[in-house]
Specification:
This protein is of the alpha/beta class. The protein has three domains: 2-124, NAD(P)-binding Rossmann-like Domain (Rossmann fold); 136-296, Dihydrodipicolinate Reductase, domain 2; 335-417, Alpha-Beta Plaits (2-Layer Sandwich), CATH 3.30.70.260. It has 13 helices and 17 strands. It has helices at 13-24, 26-33, 81-92, 102-119, 136-142, 157-167, 172-181, 190-193, 196-210, 229-237, 299-315, 353-363, 396-404; strands spanning 2-9, 35-43, 57-59, 72-75, 96-99, 123-124, 148-154, 220-221, 240-251, 254-265, 277-284, 288-295, 338-348, 368-373, 381-388, 391-392, 409-417. The strands form two sheets. Strands 7, 8, 9, 10, 11, 12, 13, 14, 15, 16 and 17 form an eleven-stranded mixed sheet that branches. Bound molecules: L-homoserine (HSE). L-homoserine (HSE) is lined by residues 131, 156-158, 184-186, 192, 197, 296-297.
Amino acid sequence: MKKLRVGICGWGNVATGLFNTIENNNKFIKSNGNLEIEIVVIGARRDNPKCDPGKIKIERDIFDVIDHDIDVLVELIGGVEVARELILKAIKNKKHIITANKAVLFHHGDEIFKEARSNDIKVLFESSVCAGTPIIKLLTEELSANKVTKIAGMLNGTSNFILSNMEEGADFKPTLELAQKEGYAEPDPTFDIEGMDAAHKIGILSSLAYGTPLPPDDFYIEGISKVEKIDFKYAKDMGFTIKHLAVSKLNNENIELRAHPVLIKEDSYLANLKSVRNGIEIETDLLGTLHIAGSGAGQESTASGVISDLVHLANSNNNTKEINLSSKKKLIDFLSLSFQYYFYIEAEDIPGVMASITSMFAEKKIGIESIVQKEDLKDNMVPIVLITDLFLEKEHDDLLKNILNLDSVFKVRSIRIEID
Ligand code: HSE
């Protein structure tokens, strides 16, 4: 049986979850993974009252973990700059790295992989995207023979949890609080609800599939905080639901990269993944469309991914695919893409209001697929729900502003429709 001497940096939720899982599932790790894990040292700035590490050596300065006789440093401190420094220093000291930290890879991935390559060190990061749901090794190894044409998925468990609950009639705020209580949300939940967390993850997947750089050039990122409960009802009337989707797609040999809420058909695979589940659809030439779904957040799910990296490290010789740093594809300008849109407009119920709204679309030569006046609100206000034909993204912000500038309009918001 293989054996690995491990140093863990960080002693929060994720690290203590890993510690407990290694203890609880040791028999599977040994029999299925052919691996004995010895935790030699833990870098913990402070004790964690929820977990007693027993006799394991504790270092208060996480950088001191590197000085121990370990094969691998498991970085679970989170954050960006200190994590980068720690990882680079450990690589130079010939320690393999396992990290669950998507932010540090998003911002400094190219530098880290380059350093690892020149030191002949492995950096494994299964848990950085969708926690333990296996997507990294799937993309880098199992799909090696395929041309991947699209990766699209719900990569943020907190957002999917909140949207699924809103679909059932819950309000945004208490659902976010529940996600925080359950330990799904990031320390700063704006990263979850404003789309950054999903953006970090799709940035990493895009780099693996297409060699886009880490950090990537700027791309379009929008979170779920503007979606309202009533949008689900109107979306459902038309056979849609609302999800937060992160997409990396091959488009004429360049790459479309984006993360934002979308209306998707309610009978589609992704639409039916509820709660904290993550789900990804991968389009390939050899396998067709592949689906993968699982828990994308939480202590145990993350521990599962980290342990899979440990097993992989112990049992592979040198077969971890190199991250492709040379074939950098260009990102397509988001403003040059076209989408169909859902618009929610709240307007005064007076003669001519529909005509004034539709004239805003006509002015920009944007076709309307359907327009419906919904049941009256109070104070003579009425919601109008509209689906457009495809139009260029660069027209969108102006259009929204022009509609809002109409005297009879009080509120307007829009959500893109993901067609395929
Ligand atoms: N906060 C993340 C999520 C968990 O909600 O998916 C780990 O990335």
